[in-house]
Design goal:
470 residues, alpha/beta, Aspartate Aminotransferase, domain 1, Aspartate Aminotransferase, domain 2, 5-stranded mixed sheet, 3-stranded antiparallel sheet, 13% strand
Length: 470
């Protein structure tokens, strides 16, 4: 008999569905009114008017049966909750950090570390900014400096680790301002604003050496560290035989402290933490957390949520889970790419990023093409996405001018363990539909602009061109 040839098998989710949440279908007319009422801002839509919600993966994932069971083991004591000590032990086991300060979510931790480490006049380099991180740094008197490699600003560059730090840019910063003005380097794993792009362990080791030489700390935004570990396992020589759990630990052990939004990798609906190794910094954090969040053994979290978080940390580093999680993102991205639609390459870990600047190249960036594309996609299909471009970038606090980033993107963010491949097929088809109609999409202008984090609550109106006169 002829030898059977091996077949490539599709991936499948490593779970089965136990409960469903019904979705509401709307008409195009209803969606047109809804987006107008929301000021063309997808953040201001009512969730009940959304069919497939790809706004964010923050707090929107599905918890496991173990996590739900953990909620019933909540010790809601004001002080010394046993769930806190369980969480602390999990953080040290999986992430290496010795001290844990719970916060209500990641930005609570960003506030604490910024107030502890930054003095007015300091400079904080990072591998591309994140909105709330940069704001807390600025509120503490610091100035963010982008030191990511240049490839990260090119959506079509295939570099496998576009989250890497350009060490030469750090050297240039120190020559200009001095190492004493750089309290820490802020490193994000799977850089969100670059399209979910990972940093390599080789680059992180180089950065560790540079920081040791200059007496500078590394603060790790580990919101999506498990996804970053998957890409290292897949792409970096010498790590194919390592587990995601092992790689996550190695990443964290190269840094001094970490902020963590537990609402992403760990799949809980609320929560975060500041993780530290230095006992003096931990003592300062314990003093501050009482002011802004709560006692140091619960911070901004209930006992039950700390228990679900601890379990979620364990589940987040399971190889089968993370392979399926990134696999679903790739499935969507590859289907969109097959339609000839420009997206950020390589496909990232938590979302597919549409290159709105290329798709709507008839609109100048001053008309916010990414915001316009996100609104148009909702009207077309009921799919909610979000802008990651000039609106998110905000204004220069000194000049008042709009920042105009090179990347003008729409993020299709996939919650973990929520949607099926059929949902992804619908998303790809809907993006293709709006791409075919792209020249009919109009630009936007602000009608209300908040002074900070304007992408959350800003409102817009359509810039409809005047009809041509004969």
């Amino acid at each position: 008999m002829p030898k059977r040839t091996s077949r490539r098998h599709s991936w499948a989710e490593p779970y089965k569905i136990k409960m469903v949440e019904l979705l509401k279908m709307t008409t195009r007319v209803e969606r047109q009114q809804a987006i107008k009422d929301a000021g063309f801002n997808t953040f201001l839509l009512r969730s009940e008017d959304v069919y497939i919600d790809l706004l964010t993966d923050s707090g929107t994932s599905a918890m496991s049966d173990d996590q739900w069971a953990g909620l019933m083991k909540g010790d809601e004591a004001y002080a010394g909750s046993r769930n806190f000590y369980n969480l602390r032990d999990f953080v040290e086991e999986y992430y290496s950090y010795k001290f844990t300060v719970p916060t209500h979510q990641g930005r609570g931790a960003e506030n604490l570390i910024s107030q502890i480490l930054i003095k007015p006049g300091d400079y904080i380099p990072g591998n591309m900014y994140f909105t709330t991180t940069r704001l807390h740094q600025e509120l503490a008197g610091g100035t963010f400096v982008d030191v990511i490699i240049d490839e990260a600003h090119d959506s079509q560059d295939p570099h496998p680790f576009k989250g890497d730090v350009d060490i030469a840019k750090l050297d240039d910063l120190v020559r200009k301002v001095g190492a004493d003005k750089v309290p820490y380097v802020c490193i994000a794993t799977c850089v969100n604003m670059a399209g979910g792009q990972p940093i390599s362990l080789g680059n992180l080791k180089q950065l560790r050496q540079w920081c040791d030489e200059h007496n500078v700390l590394i603060v790790h935004d580990m919101t999506r560290v498990a996804e970053n570990a998957f890409f290292i396992q897949e792409r970096e020589p010498g790590y194919a035989s390592k587990s995601v759990k092992e790689i996550v630990y190695e990443i964290c052990a190269l840094t001094d402290a970490a902020t963590f939004s537990a609402k992403k990798d760990a799949m809980v609906n609320i929560g975060g933490m500041l993780a530290l190794n230095d006992p003096e910094l931990y003592d300062k954090a314990c003093n501050l957390v009482v002011v802004y969040e709560g006692l140091h053994t619960y911070g901004g979290m209930a006992g039950r949520d700390m228990e679900a978080l601890a379990i979620g940390i364990r589940e987040s580093v399971q190889d089968d889970h993370i392979r399926a999680r990134v696999g679903q993102v790739r499935y969507l991205g590859e289907h969109i790419e097959q339609e000839g639609i420009p997206i950020v390459k390589p496909i990232g870990g938590h979302a597919v990023f549409l290159d709105a600047g290329q798709i709507l190249n008839h609109l100048p960036q001053t008309m916010f093409p990414a915001q316009s594309l996100a609104a148009a996609l909702y009207v077309e299909s009921g799919i909610r996405s979000m802008e990651r471009g000039a609106v998110s970038a905000g204004r220069n606090k000194e000049t008042g001018e709009n920042y105009m980033p090179k990347l003008e993107l729409v993020r299709l963010t996939i919650p973990r363990r929520v949607y099926t491949q059929a949902h992804m097929d619908i998303v790809a088809e809907s993006v293709a539909e709006i791409y075919d109609q792209r020249h009919d999409v109009h630009g936007l202008k602000f009608t209300y602009e908040p002074p900070m984090l304007r992408f959350f609550q800003g409102r817009f109106e359509a810039l409809v061109p005047e009809p041509a006169t004969v």
